[in-house]
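Input for the complex:
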Amino acid sequence: MLRKKGIIFTLDAIFALMAALTIISASLFYMGQVGKIPFNKQALGKISQDSLTILEKDGTLGKAVEIGSAATLSSFLNSLPSNLCGKIEINDASKNNILAALKPGCTGSNELVISVRAFVGNNFNVYYARMEIWYKEV
Amino acid sequence: MTLLLLLSVFTFTQAYLDRNKELQNTVSLSGAGGKLRYIEDDVISNAYGDLLGIKFGNITRGDYINISFNLASLVHGRKYLDVTNSYESFVEGAYSYLNNANVTLIGFNNSFVIEPYGTRFDLQGQNISVYTMPVPLNYIRAITVRTDVGAENNSECFVPADDGVPYPEIIVGYTYDLIGGGRGECLNYAQLNPQENNDLSMKQFYLETKNPSGFIGVKYGKISSTDGVLAIITYNITANVTQLDLQYNLIEGKVQIKGGNISIKSLVGDITKQNEIILAEE
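Predicted:
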């Protein structure tokens, strides 16, 4: 009798454990699928888009192409907040690189955001600026 | 009891995952929507003016509608249609690829339209044609053209015969270099019938130049069987049109300068944005 009871309790415990493990595993599986919400990337995207818009509308991009110097672009990158890194390239419509500037003290990152802005030079040719932006690794 | 607790934990994690996915989707869509607006601003905000060398000035409404333009220069041999076609190819090709979107420009070329009057501007290198009468009604009251011809004058400033009231007043001013130094200017006007060929002398508002040898002419009226056309024609000179003002009688509707349409399809979220290209509005 006692033996029968023991078997029943053991089976009950095994089933309970299996049920618990199944539910816990399923819960862990779901938790594992929870992704990071890309608020940071969105903020970086906004900053790079705003930066290129300013540089186009105040004529900095056109002027840089006209004089063939990226000095004004470097100076703009230097004025970015200290926790941000950035790189700006200017290319012609055939994707040939003409000018490039990188914020000093910055190296590349895998977590970067890229924005592009087209503009027309004083010579009526079409160019585009490509800005990479990322958080500085501490 | 334990089973209930475990089931509630399971339900909670499932709900958390669903919420997270929903939030991620919302953030992605919001980013894609913002990017469409950015692309639209990028492609249409400055491009038209920069490509055609034209500044869209003020549109003011009072007793009349006044619209002013400032054109950089009419350069002999400049092919505006090639310039706008090249920009369109770039935007629809490399630019679309770089932005992960399909951007299409419709009716983006070397002309633009003033609505609701239907006046069409057509820039052809060294010449400009302004078609002011798409319908038989004339709304134009006055047109002012001031140009720096950038050369010495080699003739008097010709003026066409005045047709009188009630026809539009055409005011034309030329600034030029004087032979032997200094600057000169002539400013003339005439009221001209828009439905008449006012070009019988072949020289309406007309000035010949030397150094370089060429000419500039402004015509108004029936040109090539079309009524109400203003044509600025230059030959072998680089003329700066410093002022081009149109004055219209009032009609219903907001005045807008339009240069075609843009369609942007984001490859993220499958969103499409379509809009008219508004170059200026009152």
